[in-house]
Amino acid sequence: MNVPVAPHRRALPILSPEKIRGLKPALADVIEYRKSGLSLNWIVGCPLECGYCVRHLFDNFEMKVPRRLMSDGEAVARLTGHSYFRAHTTPIQLLNRATDPMLPIVKPHVYEVLRKLDERGLTNHVLIITRWRVGPEDCAVLNSFTHLRLTVLVTHSNIANPAIEPVDSHIAAESLRTLHAHAERYRTVLYWRPIVPGLNDSDADIERARELSQHAHATVFTGLFFREEIASYYEAHDLPMPYEETARRKIMPEAAEQRILDAFGQGDSWGALFRKTSCGVAYAHGEADYNGHFGVPELCDICPSEQIARCRAAWVKPELSTVTQEARALGATGEVQVNDRAIVVEGLDEPPRYFLQHGFGYQCHDRAKPHHYRQHGRAPIGWKAENGTTNA
Ligand code: SF4
Questions:
Q1: Rg value, the chain, Cα
Q2: Mutation test of ligand 1: which of 151, 222, 275, 279 has the most ligand atoms closer than 8 Å to its C-beta?
């Protein structure tokens, strides 16, 4: 296959074993199973200084120059050889936690990994998230992969405070327009995030998102990860604190969601809008959601009717005996249940739960961490508790 490649650049150096040993073990481990897919992170370091970056969680925020942890070929071998990888099924994410995949010195390696995956005839979803510049020449490369189901998600926050969002949102907006205008084989999603009440949810912010949603195959809106490490950075840099407390899950207060949904309901000049990343990605490719969110029907109330029909047709409650057998093989303890919303397990952390979820196309929840009605697996901050009180 003749794949157009970006102009040749010097390959990114590979960190020495000694330097790799100095990284946090979680960062040195290049594969992480996340809800949107099996994530491959063989390059770390980023010059963009987004205040809310998850690199704070890995003590990696000070590493401004991207470096590889291994060659591109070894990265592909690790991914496809991973015990949770299933050809054509497992969604894949590239470089979604420690660098931006479209930085000029990073993207040749991203293209090389895509090429190697595509040459194997793999049809897996591949998600790439960027806020950086994407030009027509990049679109030509992205269109050249013939098997992969590729989606480029463009993060656009419209946060005006440069200490929180140092990359001008106009860059992302331009990239989205370019990606959408040139899309043939890949799809592009407006990733409208992180939405923080009072910071970037004004009428003007929402209008901006509406306009951009017309230049995307789908739009996903979501809130902020606000963990201890990120809160400490905000405090140390005297940034306005978005919330009084931190949370394990993303924070998307009910009032902020409602403001967006009210605006979305006022007219048909919006592109399709989704609460969940996999829903937006699946819709963009004309497929049912691979995370089985259809089992949580209150998520689907903003979804286009043709997409609801797709998800309904694909959503099949799995047999308890089959699920139990697979869950036990992964180490599940206690009772395994399959209810009308989800598989419920005990004793499995996130990677094996996502393995079950993506394999069955059916939600898989941990009994110890229940998902509350209408919070959609998000933090309780800003939502009314069942006793009617409001969480801060
Ligand atoms: S119908 Fe529901 S599960 Fe399917 S894409 Fe829409 S919101 Fe997601």
A1: 20
A2: 279
pLDDT the model gives residue 387: 42
Mean pLDDT, residues 168-197 taken together: 96
> Does 385 score more than 70 pLDDT?
no
What's the pLDDT score for residue 5?
46
Please determine, for residue 198, whether its predicted confidence score (pLDDT) is greater than 50: yes
> Whose CA is closest to atom 7 on ligand 1?
300
Q: Which CATH superfamily is domain 17-285 in?
A: Aldolase class I (3.20.20.70)
Domain borders along the chain are 17-285, 316-392
What are the residues facing 155 on neighbouring strands?
191
Per-residue pLDDT tens for 76-97?
999 999 999 999 999 999 999 8
Burial-class residue 58 by CB neighbours within 10 Å (0-12, 13-18, 19+). buried
For ligand 1, which residues put their CB under 6 angstroms from it? 274, 276, 279, 282-283, 289, 293-294, 299-300, 303, 307-308, 311
pLDDT greater at residue 98 or residue 115: 115
Q: What is the pLDDT of residues 177-186, one digit of tens each?
A: 999 999 999 9
Q: Which atom of ligand 1 is nearest to the CA of 274?
A: 7
Which tokens hold the place of 112? Answer: 């090389």
Distance of CA 62 to the CA centre of its chain: 23
